[in-house]
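F.,

This is the one I mentioned.
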């Protein structure tokens, strides 16, 4: 059993009661998010993928999120924009663009999970990535990567040779 604690903040915890598995995962996600806020996203690729796997990897249904960064690739925020079923979710590029504009983002990292654990990008994943990339490019914003995650592993489209606008 993991030592009991209740997270009061990312820097402070008290030994009050046994924490649930969900609380521990949420606490880990908070710590990983704070690490992203301290430095450049591209300088911490391992932290980025660990954070995104923690946030989406173990979900029972498909989730689609976006990590937003500024022109120096400093972390601006992360949001889960779409929730779907076990087999998929409907993602609207205009909503990704709307949030990127609201946060004054210069670039994004797209991420979604595959609850099945099969991480091979589908033709729909590739088409969606292209559509979001094209929409953001019209506004001088970039897609840096699209990750597909599970609780234990991940696939990067850029690492597989995918080229985004302005690459």
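My design for it:
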């Amino acid at each position: 059993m993991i030592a009991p604690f209740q997270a009061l903040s990312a820097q402070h915890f008290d030994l009050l009661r046994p924490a649930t598995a969900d609380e521990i995962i949420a606490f880990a996600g908070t710590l990983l998010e704070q690490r992203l806020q301290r430095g450049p996203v591209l300088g911490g690729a391992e932290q980025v993928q660990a954070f995104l796997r923690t946030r989406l990897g173990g979900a029972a249904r498909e989730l689609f999120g976006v990590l937003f960064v500024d022109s120096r690739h400093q972390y601006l925020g992360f949001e889960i924009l779409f929730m779907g079923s076990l087999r998929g979710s409907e993602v609207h590029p205009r909503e990704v663009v709307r949030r990127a504009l609201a946060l004054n983002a210069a670039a994004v990292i797209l991420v979604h999970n595959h609850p099945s654990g099969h991480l091979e990008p589908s033709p729909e994943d590739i088409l969606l990535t292209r559509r979001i990339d094209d929409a953001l490019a019209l506004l001088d914003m970039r897609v840096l990567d699209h990750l597909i995650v599970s609780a234990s592993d991940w696939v990067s489209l850029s690492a597989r040779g995918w080229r985004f606008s302005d690459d």
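The longest helix spans residues 21-37.

Talk soon.
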